[in-house]
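_Per-residue structure_
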Amino acid sequence: MAWIETVSPERAEGALKRLYEEAVERAGRVYNVIRLQSLRPAVLRASVQLYSQIMKGESGLSRAEREMIAVVVSRANGCFY
């Protein structure tokens, strides 16, 4: 497995610290998929916004249908998230 430098929640400052706090509010913790983008907080914010629009924005699909699609795609890609 590749090693990618990340910023731990304990070391986070400024914008990254706020993004981590938001992650904890949403999910109860800071998952690795969030930490992977920690060196570029602006990119992390954009990524979270895109995900939010895809999963919660206007769509002909219900939230449950979108979640089911995400699970199937993750499984097909061998991703345990």
Summary: The chain is about 60% helix and 0% strand.
